[in-house]
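Support request, please re-run this one:
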Amino acid sequence: MTVEPIKDKKKINVFLTYLKGKSGRDFLLAKFQLNTGLRISDVVGVRVRDIFTDRLNFKDYFILRERKTGKEKKIKLNQEIKKVLKPYVKNEKLSNDDFLFQSKKGENQAISVTQAYRVLKEAANATGIENFGTHSLRKSWGFWTYKASRYNIGLIMDVFNHSSQKITLRYIGVDQESKDELYSLVQF
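Re-run finished. Output below.
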């Protein structure tokens, strides 16, 4: 099975709505990954202090060291994710040292990558999203950012730390259908 991005925004909305109905944590987990393009292994380890000051104000940048590459990543969180983050932290009564995505098993323990995958995969199955895996939401961010940025593949390649544009295009699921769409943009 090839893991693919979700190329239909209606399906993304149905997926998020389904998760919201099940759990605030799981909804935020998906929303966070969709709005940052991070690997799930980096998302599960995020703590409140990584995003907020002691007074629960947003930091200018969310800075993390990627587990896979060891590289530092600096992210300016968008309004869509900020809108749901602060109420979630307040509602869950999370302290600065708490993991954002708490495991239900133990005191201040992060959800595991495996459990995060199970939760997201179950929601994908329930909402009819096929070819879903742990990278689907990251790939979805790349795909939709590629379109919104007017096909700025170089910037997305840089964000993903890919060595070539070809790798990034394949990763975000730009296929013949997308290439065909490009040819219809300019007509003389």
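Strands lie at 62-65, 72-75. The mean pLDDT is 93.
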